[in-house]
Amino acid sequence: MKNRKTYAFTLVELLVVIAIIALLLTILLPTLSRARAQAKGAVCLTRLRTLSQGLSIYTNQHREVLPPSRMPDMGDGVNWQIDIEGGLKYRPTFLAIMGSAIGVQPFRNPMATAAEIDQDGEAGDRQNYASDAYVCPAVPDWTDERNGGYGYNYQFLGNSRLRDPSNAFSFKNWPVRLSQVKKPGSLVVIADCMGTAASYEARIDYGNNSRDAARFGNEGFNLDPPRVDPTNGEMANFDSPQARTAAHDRHLGKAAVLWLGGRAETRSLESLGYMYEEEADIIGFEGDNTLFNIDAHDKAWTR
Fold first, then answer.
1. Torsion angle defined by CA atoms of residues 122, 123, 125 and 131, in that order, rounded to the nearest 10 degrees
2. How far apart are CA 67 and CA 85, in angstroms?
3. Number of helices and strands (H, E) in the chain?
4. What angle (nearest 5°) sits at the alpha carbon of residue 271, between those of residues 270 and 277?
5. Which distant-in-sequence residues (6+ apart) come within 8 Å of 138 by Cβ?
6. Is 269 strand, coil or helix?
7. What's the angle, vertex CA 65, arms to CA 60 and CA 69, rounded to 5?
8. In degrees, to the nearest 5, what angle opens at C-alpha 164 toward C-alphas 158 and 165?
9. What are phi and psi of 295, to 5 degrees?
10. Exposed/middle/buried for 1, CB within 10 Å: 0-12, 13-18, 19+?
11. Are 158 and 105 in contact (CB under 8 A)?
């Protein structure tokens, strides 16, 4: 009986195979990563289009009045409570209002007052969204209704803050009606928002219940336009003159945007009108508000 020869890879051959595999991974991983990012961007745009349907239903039911960024705080402990999908809710944001219009429940158990605590241990004014419909897939942990990933063009479309604390109905810029908008197809309604971290060079990771102005997502439901008047206007975090929000280019260098006409797409911050202060690498106060102003003019909102 003849001896059978046993064949095996040599060390050199194994090293060559390993090197080829490593090279292929080096080539393929960026492609796969980009494909995943593109998929998240596509899902984000789908969610914005769905919310747009809710916006249309809401405005039709309310004589063309657009929702505010959040239902008003009228002072002296008196605050708006309205019925949303799931029950009575304390000062819901535009997201909860729009999503409820199409039957997507925002919270597992909406709280009617700020003092109430829900089953997740969250206060009634800081509940977490329970549906993915309200969350950008690129930042899936940004679920706080205040520190969310989607911001509303509140300065021009629905600033329900009070001009006069003694007058419970002295809203700064609300109600706003569709008929006031000159170019609905070219007006930003919602966009990915980075929160007040836009004003800081040393930005901090997201915090669900944080009020730290340097953190990503802080006051994220309010989207400030590119040009802000720091003296006669205001910013999302009006307690700090430097804490403005801005769109967030988290989808391969672009931000997801919903236009009032219902179109959703990704756009660069520069094309939306935002300008960086190069030395500090922050979003400054100067920019072009044409795509945010209901008059389609480049001017800052002022009180």
1. 20
2. 16
3. 4, 10
4. 15
5. 37, 40, 41, 44, 149, 192, 250, 251
6. helix
7. 115
8. 100
9. -90, -5
10. exposed
11. no
Beta strands 150-152 and 264-267 are unpaired
Q: How far apart are CA 267 and CA 255, in angstroms?
A: 5
Say how far apart CA 168 and CA 235 lie, in whole Å. 21
The pLDDT, as a whole number, for residue 241 is 60
What's the CA gap between 204 and 186, in Å, rounded?
A: 33
User: Do residues 268 and 276 touch, judged by C-beta distance below 8 A?
Assistant: no
- The one-letter amino acid code at 200 reads Y
Cis peptide before 175 (omega within 30 of 0): yes
> Which one has a higher pLDDT value, 169 or 178?
178
Strands (DSSP E) contained in 163-254 are 171-173, 188-192
pTM here is 0.89
The encoded tokens of residue 12 equal: 């050199």
Residue linked to tokens 């990915």: 192
Q: What average pLDDT does range 180-188 have in this prediction?
A: 97
Residue 163 contacts residue 172 (beta carbons within 8 Å): yes
Cα 101 to Cα 51: distance, rounded to the nearest angstrom: 9
Pairing of β 81-84 and β 87-90: antiparallel
Torsion of CA 246, 249, 254, 258, to 10 degrees: -50
Question: What is the b/e burial string over 66-96, where b = at least 16 CB atoms within 10 angstroms of the residue's CB?
Answer: bbbbbbbbbeeeebebeebbbeebbbbbbbb
Q: Which residue has the tokens 């977490």?
A: 128
Residue 240 — very low, low, confident or very high, per pLDDT cuts 50/70/90? Answer: low
Pair 70, 92: CB distance under 8 Å: yes
**DSSP H helical ranges for the chain:** 11-61, 94-101, 154-157, 269-272
Compute the distance between CA of residue 266 and CA of residue 271 in angstroms, rounded to an integer: 10
Specify the residue for token string 């730290």: 212
Q: Which residue has the tokens 């940004």?
A: 142
